[in-house]
Amino acid sequence: MNKVRLALMMLILLGSIFASKNLMAIADASRQLENRKLNQIRNQTVSKTLIKNVIGQLTVIAANLLVIKTR
């Protein structure tokens, strides 16, 4: 009876170890996915900012060319 009880306790312990490792792996995968999504958002924001800056600079250049042409 004691051996059976000990074996059951060991199985429960092993099961909890495997379960905790699986939970840790799931949490890690979730963190990685969240980081990827955040990086995509950051990259999109940087790309939009760069495009806005380029458009702004082109507008200034075009305005300067118009001023030079009208002189």
Provide a descriptive summary of the structure in words.
It contains 1 helix and no strands. It has 71 residues and is mostly helical. The radius of gyration is 31 Å and the shape is rod-shaped.
The helicity comes to over 70%
Main structural class: mainly alpha
Poorly predicted ranges: none
What is the N-to-C succession of helices and strands? H
Give me the count of strands. Answer: 0
Distance between the termini: 105 Å
The proportion of residues in beta strands is under 5%
Task: State Rg.
Answer: 31 Å
Q: Total number of helical segments?
A: 1
Outline: rod-shaped
Mean pLDDT: 87
- Largest sheet: number of strands, sense, barrel closure: none
Provide the descriptors you would attach to this structure in a database record:
71 residues, rod-shaped, 0% strand, single chain, mainly alpha
Which helices and strands appear, and what pairs or packs with what?
Blueprint: H1 2-70
Provide a quick synopsis of the model.
The chain is mainly α and 71 residues long. It is built from one helix and no strands.
